[in-house]
Amino acid sequence: MEKMKRRAALASLGSLSLGVSTPILEKGEVFQAPYSVKKTSLKTDILVVGGGTAGVIAAIQAGRAGRKTILVENGSQLGGTTTTGGVAFPGIFFAWGKQVISGIGWELVQAAVAMNDDQLPNFSIPHGKNHPRHQVRLNGQLYAMLIEEKCVEAGVQLRFYETPTKVTPQKNGWLVQTMGKGVIAEISCNQLIDCTGNAFVTSMAGFPVLREAETQPGSLMFQIGGYDFKSLDLKLIQARYQEAIQKGELVKTDFRNNIAGVLRSAGDNISHVMGADSTTSETHTVANLKGRKALLDTLRFLRSLPGLEKTKLIDMQNETAVRETFRIDGHYKITHADYVTGKMFDDSVSYSYYPIDVHDENGVVPDHLNEGIVPTVPLRALVPKNSRNFLVAGRCVSSDRLANSALRVQASCMGMGQAAGATAVLASLQNKSPLEVSIKDIKQLIEEHGGIVPTFV
Amino acid sequence: MSLKLISVLKLTALFLLLWGISGFVSEVAEPIRYFRPYTLALPVAKTIPYLVDFEEETGTDTLFQAVSQEGCPVSYFRHIQNNVCFDGKCRMLVATLYWNPTGRYLGFELPKGEFLSKTDHDPFTPEEYTRLSEILADSLSPLGTFTYNALVPKAAVDVQKVDAVSSPTAPDVLDYIIKGAAYTTYKLWHLVYGPTQLEIEKLTQKTLSADLLLKILESNDLGDKMWAVRRVRPFISAHILLQQKVISLIQDNQYNLSEQIIRELPTTDSTIQRGLAMAFLKNNYAIKKLIVEKLKMASSLTPEMVALFTSALPSLQGESVASILELLRIKKINDPVTGRAIADLLRSDNNFVARKAYDFLTKQKINDPYIEEQLTRFQSKQK
Predict the structure, then answer these.
(1) Domain boundary among A316, A346, A379
(2) With an 8 Å Cβ cutoff, is A133 touching chain B?
């Protein structure tokens, strides 16, 4: 009996010592094989990289036209600047009393407005200085869910958390390698659309991209509360703000040197993160750190002032939204003169409408378009020089800096997204490169899917 | 006539005498007057005064309603008197403000010999009167959100009644005022868009009829049309002309108005359903979406509507097809004729459209050999 007890004790010691390297499993638990990065190969007609403002529309357009479509997004949700960036006012869709951007983009905006019982602005009011009144305010997170649903409905295969690591030309298309959490995918596609906003797929594919020596600042969107603006002593606050800047406690450019503006708007689109660049994880990390530090420092400062002791952060976006990084060197570069004169091209495929809007360290003073002017985007500006089966859509459109400052806004990006999606569909169906497709056919397809194409009056 | 109205008439008789106003349009020789387009271009038959408590704005005051022979409110007006001071000298701001029956600003008029003046008592130029009228017509002017102190940041003495004395007007508001007459502009704008507007809307509302709405809908002003459209619901089912007029205003180039109309229209009426379907066929994508969403709320679709939408399917693409199929599914349309038409979409070159048709047919389960054959063919093609 005693021997048996010793044996049992030894056995349990044995299992204990084994347990150092192999834990004892509770009921229902199983050991997982070591984490490894799985490799997968996929084939599609159209691959869209970047699930932001333009990419979502391009992918839905391609899916609804019946093409097999994959959309790769490196974040956790769709919508980009509108949703993750928190700039949930994607105007402007109407110009001079007339709708100029419609189609899939407007449909999605319309759906988000309806489901949130929001009120659309009065689009008949004059533009010029009234342009902010034409902005449609959305519930960004609702919008993120709606566009995801529409992508799925259109048959678009969504791949979140993935980013391209290699882009290789192949016969009749491209091979794009992406990497995400535990997966490396090799996606073979006939048509590739770069909607990254940073043109990095274009660059990886070997086509030149351009950027300014100094780019526009980004913005970290947030909302504050806990004070009564009307009762504040703005003169005192402004003086203390300037003192804090002089002492190096706050940075003048973080909030456009305008603390009253921060308080009046209770946050929103007023932060400026100088040099914000979303092109790489490292640069975007820097932009996020800078944006958050500026906000945190400013919150502490505000809470030290009379009337602002209870200032609190109500909401803040997860990342700094970026206005400007790289642009492609396209077959045509849209110039400032083209934009402000509303130049119509033989291959204009979408409209754009926004003032010239370059943010700098002092803020922004929009330069409004003259009455009746509605700029257009030629297809050639969406195609990198010397490329085949390749398109871009969104803010990396080929354009000079001033034109880009207006083209970059979300409604215009949606228009470009639909145009790029439609062009890729036809190129894929006809086994052509985008610039070989008939403009008439592209316009017809865009219109069939509700888009508005520029026409000579 | 009520006692209240009689007393009001007595009180206002003196005013009418003093101001020389004998009806809607003064007979006084060349008074300074600036007017915008009328909502209703009807001659005025009589003027009815109403004593209104405007509370904090001016206290009790008379609001006049100018009425046409048919009893339509053509316009409203109020006589305004307010002190405006500069350099310690005060002058009365005396003017008559006019509104349309929808509450929209109509114009202003000064009594004979009266004029508006700026700092140093300089009279307004004709251009400044025109500009003032434009400013007053801008219901969205930032004057609505600015405090008077923001207009004249360091104004001295009685800040509420001073017209830019000791400091320049704030530069970012110069576009919205007449320079040197900030208080005058500010005061008049706030009178135009103050409680008077609401009183006017209430009074017009009391006389509202389908005929009056039809007349207002003829106005060239979009704001007037919107005002009328927001009030058509109680009248529209019983008035075929009003229905036709309202539906005819659903147009591509008027998104807000079209959206408002579609929102207001009841969907129970078969004539209105038909009108919406016709509007669907002739308008753009954005309007089409609104119409389909509206019809989803209808308790049922008439057979005519079902046939009309089904026949439109082959000429449509993408989301338009999907949304119509969704409408038909919600309305439980499962007759073989409709089903066969939809089954033909299974042969579409566009796989998205074919899949939508497949989803519809498999959910509706229509017992028909042709449909079943098409479904089988589609399924085998997908393998």
Answers:
(1) A316
(2) yes
Does residue B269 form part of some domain? Answer: yes
pTM of the predicted protein model: 0.85
- B160: DSSP letter: T
A337 and A201 together in one domain: yes
Alpha-carbon distance of A192 to A173, in angstroms, equals 8
Chain B residues with CB inside 8 Å of A107's CB? 285-286, 289, 319
Beta strands at A69-72 and A38-49: parallel, antiparallel or unpaired: parallel
Q: Which residue of A has its CA nearest to B139?
A: A125
ipTM for the assembly: 0.83
Instruction: Please judge whether A106 and B286 are an interchain contact, meaning their C-beta atoms are less than 8 angstroms apart.
Output: yes
- Residues with Cβ within 8 Å of B6's Cβ and at least 6 positions away in sequence, in order, are none
Q: What angle (nearest 5°) sits at the alpha carbon of residue A409, between those of residues A406 and A411?
A: 120
Judge: A64–B293 Cβ closer than 8 Å, yes or no: no
User: B65 and B213 share a domain?
Assistant: no
Q: How far off is chain B from A305, nearest CA to CA, in Å?
A: 23
The answer to whether A351 contacts chain B (CB < 8 Å) is no
Q: What is the distance between the alpha carbons of residues B363 and B359, in angstroms, rounded to a whole number? A: 6
The answer, for A231 touching chain B at a CB cutoff of 8 Å, is: no
Interface contact flag, B318 A130, Cβ < 8 Å: no
Q: Residue A179 above 90 pLDDT?
A: yes
Within a domain: residue B203? no
Instruction: Determine phi and psi for B291, rounding to 5 degrees.
Output: -65, -45
Å between B318 CA and nearest CA of chain A: 5
Q: Test A107 with B252 for CB contact under 8 angstroms.
A: no
State the CATH number of the domain containing residue B275: 1.25.10
| Residue B259 at interface with chain A, using a CB cutoff of 8 Å | yes
Question: Into how many domains does chain A fold?
Answer: 2
Question: For A304-318, A407-421, B41-55, which range has the lowest pLDDT when averaged over its residues?
Answer: B41-55
Question: Which pLDDT tens digit goes with each residue over B328-353?
Answer: 999 999 999 999 999 999 999 999 99
On chain A, the residues whose CB falls within 8 A of the CB of B140 are 122, 125, 130, 133
* A152: amino acid identity, one letter: V
Q: Is residue B204 part of a domain?
A: no
Looking at the complex, does the CB of residue A451 fall below 8 Å from at least one CB of chain B? yes
CA angle in degrees (0–180, nearest 5) for B281-B282-B286: 85
8 Å CB contact of B286 and A99: yes
Query: Looking at this protein, which amino acid is placed at residue B122?
Result: D
Q: β-strands A376-378, A348-351: how paired?
A: antiparallel
Show Cβ contacts of residue A439 under 8 Å, excluding neighbours closer than 6 positions.
A346, A347, A349, A379
Report the number of distinct structural domains present in chain B: 3
Per-residue CA distances from B115 to B30, B77, B98, B125, B127 (Å): 12, 18, 17, 10, 13
Distance of residue A175 Cα from the nearest chain B Cα, in angstroms = 24
Query: Per-residue pLDDT tens for A337-361?
Result: 999 999 999 999 999 999 998 888 7
**CA–CA distances in Å: residue B206 to residues A151, B39, B72, B102:** 50, 17, 11, 12
Give the pLDDT of residue A134: 84
Tell me which chain A residue has its CA closest to the CA of residue B290.
A110
A413 min Cα distance to partner chain B (Å):
18
Compare all CA atoms of chain B with the CA of A63 and give the residue at the minimum distance: B352
* Residue A313 Cα, gap to closest chain B Cα (Å): 25
